[in-house]
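Query structure, 191 tokens:
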């Protein structure tokens, strides 16, 4: 449930789920049993871990097995999770290495100009003059700002920082991102 932020004055989107969006979003990955009371360490993927509260429905693994969260608490490496029916390290250990999901329609709303990563993947990218740049194939989280990895039809990927200087418009309805490139951003241009 990662998100991308851009200036709200330069975007056009409703932020509501559209056709083709995933039914589930990964919020973490279960790692290893912890202690003797059936807790398991979860590596956190979500920007909203505070929403993972007791009673919230979660789904595990590729087949999205429903689970009920009983308890969670902070741990230096992530969150310690307890699930209904899992009270021993042996039981909860069987859940190791499974991803934890929430329903996509249960995601928290974002402020105007913010997007979940999955909403941007696959969008067409073009310049203000309409010249195609490629499609978003990945989003790198660098700490300072996210970076769109845009794959053109031919040639090397183009890396575009998610910053007002480069992102002019995101339009989910048309599936297009308009970007302002600077000389040297395309690998074949050199520096």
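Result returned for the query:
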């Amino acid at each position: 449930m990662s998100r991308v932020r851009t200036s709200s004055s330069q975007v056009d989107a409703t932020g509501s789920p559209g056709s083709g969006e995933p039914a589930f979003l990964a919020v973490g990955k279960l790692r290893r049993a912890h202690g003797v009371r059936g807790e398991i360490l979860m590596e956190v993927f979500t920007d909203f871990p505070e929403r993972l509260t007791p009673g919230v429905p979660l789904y595990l693994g590729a087949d999205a097995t429903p689970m009920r969260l009983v308890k969670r608490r902070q741990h230096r490496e992530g969150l310690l999770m307890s699930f209904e029916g899992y009270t021993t390290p042996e039981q909860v250990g069987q859940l190791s290495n499974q991803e934890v999901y929430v329903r996509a329609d249960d995601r928290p709303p974002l402020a105007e100009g913010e997007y979940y990563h999955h909403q941007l993947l696959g969008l067409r990218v073009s310049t203000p003059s309409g010249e195609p740049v490629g499609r978003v194939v990945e989003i790198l989280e660098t700490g300072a700002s996210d970076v769109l990895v845009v794959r053109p039809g031919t040639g090397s990927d183009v890396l575009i920082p998610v910053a007002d200087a480069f992102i002019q418009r995101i339009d989910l309805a048309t599936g297009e991102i308009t970007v302002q490139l600077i000389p040297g951003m395309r690998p074949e241009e050199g520096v």
